[in-house]
Amino acid sequence: DIQMTQSPSSLSASVGDGVSITCRASQSIGSYLNWYQQKPGKAPKVLIYAASSLQGGVPSRFSGSGSGTDFTLTISSLQPEDFASYYCQQSSTTPYTFGQGTKLEIK
Amino acid sequence: QITLKESGPTLVKPTQTLTLTCTFSGFSLTTNGVAVGWIRQPPGRALEWLGVIYWDDDKRYSPSLRSRLTITKDTSKNQVVLTMTNMDPVDTATYYCAHRRVGLVGAFTWFDPWGQGTLVTVSS
Fold first, then answer.
1. Whether B114 and A43 lie within 8 Å, measured CB to CB
2. B92 to chain A, minimum CA–CA distance in Å?
3. How confident is the model at residue B105 (pLDDT cuts 50, 70, 90)?
C-alpha cells in the first residue's frame, strides 16, 4: 500500500491567516492526489483533485500544488468556515489511501 | 444531482456479518466509467478506504480487509451493498459510500459526492 503522511496533525491559526498543509506519499503518485475537507459530524467534501484542480464551487482561496511524492494544500486567507479537518488521498494505485488528517483550529 | 445514502444496522454483535446498502440517484452504475466506493472512519480517527465497485462489475478491496469484504451492485435498484464478515469492536466506525468522479483528461479520480454516513457500533 502507498502510505500518505500529512503534517502537521493539528494547526492553530486566526481568521485572515494563510496556512499550508503538506502530504507526502511513500512512493511517486504523479499528480494523483486529492484533498478533502471534513467538518464535525459531516461527510468529507472534495476541495482539490489531480493535485491542483479546484473542484467547482470551492473558493479560490484554496489551492493545491505538488507532484511525485510531495504535495501542499494552501488556504490563502482563512475564513471562519475553514476551520475543519483536512485529508489528502492518493488515487494512483488501489487501495486509494488517505492521510491521517490535519485538524485546523481557531487560535 | 447526485445523491447517495447509506442504510443498515446501527449495532452489530462481534462475529456477526454487517450488511450496508448504499442507495443512490442521479447516475447509473451501468454507465461506462462509473464507480461507487466505500470508506469508513472510526470515531475521532482518519478515513480508511475500503473498496470500490465499477460499472463493469470489477471490484477492488483494501488488502487488509479483502478476506472479509464483499461489494456487490443491483443496478435495477440503484444500490450498492457492502458485506463485512466477522465484525469486531475495532470495526466500529461511520461507514460512507461515495460516487467516483473521473477527470476529463487523464485517469484522475476522486470521490464526490459522499453519502451522509452511517455509524455502526460493534458491541455485545
1. yes
2. 15
3. confident
